[in-house]
Design a protein that fits this description.
This protein is of the alpha/beta class and 213 residues long. Helix content is 46%, strand content 16%.
């Protein structure tokens, strides 16, 4: 894999509670310089697309807990699409999943997927799930016609692991996110089957990769 191929698989992310548009500009500048993607809060999508229209842009829906009403998630997705997002990361409702309400989780996700003509990744919060629950969550994403599954928000403790990525990759392409801070972390996730890397240190990952060559 060369530098351009790696850059295309990194979503350089800024989603903190105190995120300002100045923070978003910084991430977009770093993405522009390296050819990476970016992931930014929904409130900044329109400004981000105006500032850096060539950067493929992801934003989040139902973030970080996934317990919004389905109609609210659907509308949030539509607003993000209209503001210029290229992809969406929607948080699955882990509480309903743990209660055994798999059909409700599937229907919730399917409404979001159907609402927009964009690839939708489903954030599963794998660190909170048993192996059986993770399988059920992945199948719900498949049944909802999602494009990807994503390991974690980074807000629920824990993050991506090699084992979870390997398991999830049996269902859909995987975005490994949560605790992926260096090239060594990213390399392990890619080798486990991840197609994308979500990280607030995407520039560091890219620079460490290019510096090691």
């Amino acid at each position: 894999m060369d530098a351009d191929a790696l850059a295309a698989r990194i979503e350089h992310t800024v989603l903190g509670t105190e995120t300002t548009f100045a923070d978003v500009r910084g991430v977009l500048d770093e993405s522009l310089a390296r050819g990476m993607r970016s992931c930014v809060p929904p409130c900044y999508v329109a400004e981000a697309t105006d500032y850096a229209p060539s950067v493929p842009l992801t934003t989040v829906v139902g973030f970080p807990h996934g317990q919004n009403a389905t109609a609210a998630k659907r509308e949030e997705a539509v607003f993000a699409w209209q503001d210029g997002a290229d992809e969406l990361d929607v948080v699955a409702n882990v509480g309903r999943l743990k209660a055994g309400e798999v059909e409700a989780v599937t229907d919730d996700l399917a409404e979001v997927v159907a609402a927009v003509p964009l690839p939708v990744k489903v954030i599963l919060e794998a660190p909170l799930l048993s192996a059986e629950e993770l399988d059920l969550a992945c199948q719900a994403a498949v049944d909802a016609d999602a494009a990807f599954v994503k390991t974690a928000t980074g807000y629920a403790g824990g993050g991506a692991t090699v084992g979870d990525v390997e398991r999830m990759a049996e269902y859909l392409p995987v975005k490994a996110s949560g605790g992926v801070r260096h090239w060594a972390d990213a390399e392990a996730m890619l080798e486990a089957g991840a197609e994308r890397i979500g990280s607030s240190t995407g520039a560091t990952i890219f620079d460490e990769f290019t510096g090691s060559r």
